[in-house]
Design goal:
Jelly Rolls; mainly beta; 16-stranded mixed sheet; 5 domains; 4 helices
Length: 496
């Protein structure tokens, strides 16, 4: 091979010095940004520690979907959760299809989706705060014992009063303020005016006041939340004030499950200033329109507050012990938006004076003080005070505790669920969970419940019901199991 060919082969086999220099430059840039990221994280972490010495302005009490917060002079956004404190200087935003309610000195500030606010201290007034609405829509309900709160709206201010409820929007088109209850004071360029119940104030993007037709809804309150504790839907009354409308202008109330008013759409027309509609559990959007022009809009939430499904101990199960009384874990299904639960345990089924009454934030609790005998238990979900309506208790379930009569006695006895084995042409009913080896037939639980046995795993249970051990995640999801390794005999599972 010639020298030229050898040189060419060598050049193709090894990178030139130019490429090595570029690779080194890329590595240096990577290291620089890595150190920059670590520095920013350290600065962010130190600011988080510093917040421990700052008095919170309020607390987040309701959250749906993605709600983020950025501390003052902080570089990163973080998720904010229920019961999280909020601080002066915090910027808080609710993303698309997300909502939040913050309590600041007995003033409930509810953020609708795509809304951005900043919480600020009022200079010279220690312990007082104002909320700057940078964009989006908020509603404010000032408690009866509250001194109100100041809102900053593109240079104008609104001071709420005790017992006032209002809805405020701010965007590229301007600012609007609707007073649903009570009275507020509006300040602009040193001038003050009072806006009372059923009135509104609108400014365009240049700060010029506009006169527009509108329907100021006095009931339901903005972002109202209702509890539904029975099978029947919740009936909600709508009441509004007509603004800049003629007496013959009849309105239409439109209701849907989505912002585009397509899913679950319905309407009630030929309305003056009242209407009534029924709602199932879910998030609902409504608007009042006149000749296809929206005069007022809002949303409300109906939450299922009926008693949860009791999953463990299984009904009519028996717990035996030798020396020490058994510890029994009570479990039930979670209820959406419930802040906590109350469990009652009694030796009779009337629960007039329950022997045990405890409150827990989890959908389970461990109880160890129960004596031998027959016990009844039930659970009710508890919601925050901004929900209207009542919760109901679950159906009561019972179990027994007894001392074992022999060392070999079974410590936990759980009635076997009835299993229906589908065959052709008849259906054979047997007791217990049964799988037929080498057959494609599946065992289906008639009651769709299964009591965990000693030695069970989620994979074995899935194989028993579905013929596929990899389907265990279906059972885990249906029973809110976060750790598949933490299951125990006697635990009741719903089989989807």
């Amino acid at each position: 091979m010639s020298d030229n060919a050898s040189n060419a082969a060598g050049q193709s086999r090894y990178p030139t010095s130019r490429f090595r220099f570029i690779d080194g430059l890329v590595l240096l840039v990577f290291i620089f940004f890595a150190f920059l990221g670590l520095y920013l994280f350290q600065q962010d972490l130190m600011r988080t520690f510093d917040m421990r010495d700052v008095e919170p302005a309020g607390t987040l009490i309701v959250r749906d979907n993605i709600v983020q917060r950025r501390h003052e002079d902080r570089l990163l956004w973080d998720r904010i959760f229920v019961t999280s404190p909020v601080y002066p200087g915090d910027v808080i935003r609710a993303a698309d299809l997300s909502f939040a309610t913050i309590d600041i000195d007995s003033n409930e500030i509810s953020l609708n989706q795509n809304t951005l606010i900043r919480i600020q201290s009022i200079m010279g007034d220690a312990g007082k705060f104002q909320v700057e609405l940078q964009e989006g829509n908020i509603s404010v309900a000032s408690g009866e014992n509250s001194s109100g709160i100041m809102l900053n709206l593109k240079g104008s201010q609104v001071q709420t009063m005790s017992g006032s409820v209002l809805n405020v929007s701010s965007g590229a088109e301007g600012v609007s303020v609707q007073v649903n209850e009570g009275t507020v004071e509006f300040f602009k360029e040193g001038k003050q005016r009072e806006i009372s119940q059923g009135m509104m104030f609108v400014m365009d993007s240049m700060g010029v006041e506009k006169v527009v037709p509108a329907a100021v809804v006095r009931q339901p309150a903005p972002n109202a939340r209702y509890l539904k504790n029975a099978d029947e839907n919740v009936f909600i009354n709508f009441l509004w004030n007509r603004v800049n409308l003629s007496s013959g202008d009849l309105l239409k109330l439109e209701i849907a499950e989505d912002l585009n008013f397509l899913r679950g759409y319905r309407f009630i027309d030929d309305l003056e200033n009242t209407a009534q509609a029924d709602f199932d559990a879910g998030n609902w959007y409504w608007k009042l329109t006149f000749e296809n022009e929206t005069l007022g809009s809002g949303q409300l939430t109906v939450v299922d507050s009926s008693g949860p499904l009791l999953t463990s101990p299984a009904p009519d199960s028996v717990f035996r012990y030798h020396e020490e009384l058994p510890q029994i874990r009570f479990q039930w299904t979670e209820k959406r938006n419930a802040s906590n639960y109350i469990i009652e345990i009694n030796d009779t089924d009337n629960f007039f004076l329950p022997r045990v009454k405890k409150r827990t934030t989890a959908a389970s609790i461990l109880v160890s003080e129960l004596e031998p005998g027959t016990w009844y238990w039930r659970v009710t979900p508890v919601f925050t005070s901004n929900y209207l309506g009542d919760s109901s208790y679950s159906n009561a379930s019972s179990f027994k505790i007894e001392k074992a009569d022999s060392p070999a006695a079974q410590l936990i006895e759980v009635p076997q669920p009835v299993i229906a084995i589908k065959t052709d042409p008849v259906t054979v009913i047997k007791s217990g969970a049964i799988k037929i080896p080498g057959s494609s037939q599946r065992a289906e639980a008639a009651a769709r419940q299964y009591a965990v046995q000693a030695g069970d795993t989620l994979g074995r249970i899935a194989d028993r019901f579905y013929g596929d051990s990899l389907a265990w995640n279906r059972i885990a999801a249906a029973n809110n199991i976060t750790n598949p390794d933490l299951i125990y005999p006697g635990q009741m599972f719903n089989i989807p």
